[in-house]
Amino acid sequence: MAVKTFASIYIGSYELSVKIFEISSKKKLKEIDHIRSRTDLGRDVYENGSIGYETVDELCDILKSYLDIAKGYQVNDCRIYASAAIRDAENEYFVLNQIQIRTGQQVHVLSNSEHRFMTYEIVAGSDYFPTIAKSAAIVDIGGMGIQITLFREGKLITTQHVDIGTLRLRNVFYDLGYSKAMYQQQLEEYIHKRIEVFCSLYLEQGVDYIVFINEYSEKLVGQLQKSDHIVSSEKFLKYVDKLQKKNLAEITKELGLLQEDSIVIPSIALFKCLIQELEAERVCAPGTNINDGIAFDYARTMNLLKTEHDFDADVLSAAKNLAEHFNSYTPHTEALSSLSVQVFEAMKKVHGLQKRHLLLLRVATLLHDVGKYISLSNAPMSAYHIIMESEIIGLSHLERQIVAYTVLFNSFPLMDLEDLPDSIDRESYLVFAKLSAILRVANALDQSHRQKFGNVKMSLKDRELIITVESTEDISLEKNLFSSKTIFFENVFSVKPIMKEKRVYSYTIQKEKKDGK
Q1: H-helix or E-strand containing 82?
Q2: Which of 132, 204, 327, 439 has the most CB atoms around its CB within 10 Å?
Q3: Predicted confidence (pLDDT) per residue in 237-291, tens digit
Q4: Which residues pair with 35 in a beta bridge?
Q5: pLDDT > 90: percent of the chain
Q6: Burial 195-211 (b: 16+ CB within 10 A, else e)
Q7: Is the CA virtual torsion 401, 449, 334, 356 positive or negative?
Q8: Over the stretch 95-117, which tens digit does the pLDDT of each residue have?
């Protein structure tokens, strides 16, 4: 494969950055340039609720200069993404419109789940990840919040957003007139309290590794370990204690920063508190950021590089753990997942869905009963709200909507597009309607939740989906309810599901008949 050049541009809460990469299947990603510019974007939004015209002018000028740099490198492609700072601004759409008019480029504003998944991708796709994933917490530290992603035995347990980003912490405490010692004490007390909640819910024991996605963590580890990006927590915390005795000017000089930055102090406090609360044994600072994640995500989705890590498995693991959290992961859930996949595969020639939609269907089957934890009488709507408010790493906001609506209309009659609780585009409406129809058929095959079928075969013949089931049990319930439960499927696909029973007698029954008992 020929080497491709790619520009990754990111508009953060307090910084704009561009990285130029060479992408090849052998060397993967090779960074060839990195330029950063400070901005008051986050401060504008935090203090005023919107982005001022002076900041917009500065933003557009910097972006134009970045695009000129990318042009100089003759990049094959370019992507511009923006953070929560723009997403939270009251004048978000007007700012994005101005950027498009002045630069000719569209900016994609990342949802929290998209942002965190991109930074996670670059870590999970690394060579060292299989070693640390046995017991690790990946902490992506941004200006407005942090994301903690927990791994045990190589499986993703949970990912949670906590709104204690470095910029937010600075703005809360910086102008209160505290002494340096009091400032640090207040910071740490506040951070500890917020992280304690996460630990009480999800942390059964300490982690072997804590991975920081943050530029200052790389600076600290670099002072302690020149040849590697991993250092013991004990050594790291001793160095933090040393730094906290210095003022901002001295810390800037110690870390070799180009200029004083007031968010370095809350950053150091975050490192310290996170290591203590998560009881981490080692600190890993790979030196990657969202620009690397954008480039990796682009290369992976465009099939420009291969990775051994199974990101779909992460999505399913997160969904399974969410189901277990709400006591809804049962043998019925496993059976439903298998049956749904069978229906999806049997209907390939008809449904017009993509491979990604099968993943969303599998997530929906795992989460279809979570609402019963909240309300037995209104479980579908409760499940919808749980899914929409949960972090499922690897799914975009739109994909999470599709999953939530698939679960909702597995039980409820399908609403018209205009009547949905949250708006969605017509194409996605068709997707979740089809997924809901498939889920209903699978559910009809295990109506008793007793997994009566030992073997199920499905085939599409003309306009009929023939479902042949084998069972040693009485399946009268499934037979009687099957037609009423599959009408929606027939309306969506113009295909009629037909259940055919292939009765299987156990050896004991057959022997008793033979012996005349």
Answers
A1: strand 77-82
A2: 439
A3: 999 999 999 988 999 898 888 777 788 899 999 999 999 999 999 999 988 889 9
A4: 18
A5: 50
A6: beebbeebbeebbbbbb
A7: negative
A8: 999 999 999 999 999 887 788 88
Residue 432 token pair: 């979740």
What tokens appear for 98 in the block? 């101005």
Are 80 and 7 within 8 A, CB to CB?
Answer: no
Residue 452 DSSP class: -
pLDDT band at 515 (very low <50, low <70, confident <90, very high): low
Please choose, from the candidates 83, 181, 185, the residue with its C-alpha nearest in 3D space to the C-alpha of residue 141: 83
Structure tokens at 275: 């290591």
Asked if residue 45 lies in contact with residue 67, where contact means CB atoms within 8 angstroms, the answer is no
- Work out the pLDDT band at 506, boundaries 50, 70, 90: low
Kindly report each contact of residues 421-428 with a partner whose C-beta sits within 8 Å and lies 24 or more positions away, as own/partner. Answer: 421/384, 422/388, 424/398, 428/398, 428/401, 428/402
Q: What is the structure's pLDDT at 27?
A: 65
Are the beta carbons of 296 and 29 closer than 8 angstroms? yes
Cα gap 281→207, rounded to integer Å: 7
Burial label for 322, CB within 10 Å (0-12, 13-18, 19+), is buried
Express as a percent the part of the chain with pLDDT over 70: 95
**Residue 470's beta-bridge partner residues?**
455, 502
pLDDT one-digit tens code per residue, 70-89: 999 999 999 999 987 888 88
Distance set, CA 499 to CA 134, 237, 448, 504 (Å): 44, 64, 16, 15
For 502, residues 6+ apart whose C-beta sits below 8 A from its C-beta are: 468, 469, 470
**CB 36 within 8 Å of CB 60:** no
475 confidence band (pLDDT: 50, 70, 90): confident
Structure tokens at 369: 């009963």
CA angle, corner 296, sides to 294 and 298, nearest 5? Answer: 70
- Residue whose C-alpha is closest to residue 216's, from 283, 294, 297: 283
Helix/strand/coil for 515: coil
Enter the tokens of residue 14. Answer: 């307090």
* pTM (two decimals): 0.80
Sheet strand arrangement including 4-11: 28-38, 15-24, 4-11, 77-82, 108-109
Contact 86, 109 (CB under 8 A): yes
Distance CA 517, CA 440 (A): 41
Of the candidates 158, 148, 146, 153, the one whose C-alpha atom is nearest the C-alpha of residue 132 is 153
Reported confidence tier of residue 512, pLDDT bands at 50, 70, 90: very low
One-letter identity of residue 482: F
165: helix, strand or coil:
coil
Q: Decide: 109 and 96 in contact? Cβ < 8 Å.
A: yes
Position 361: which residue type? L
Enumerate residues 6+ apart whose C-beta is below 8 A from 148.
137, 138, 139, 159, 160, 162, 198, 274, 278
The reported pLDDT for the residue numbered 43 is 80
The amino acid at residue 207 is V
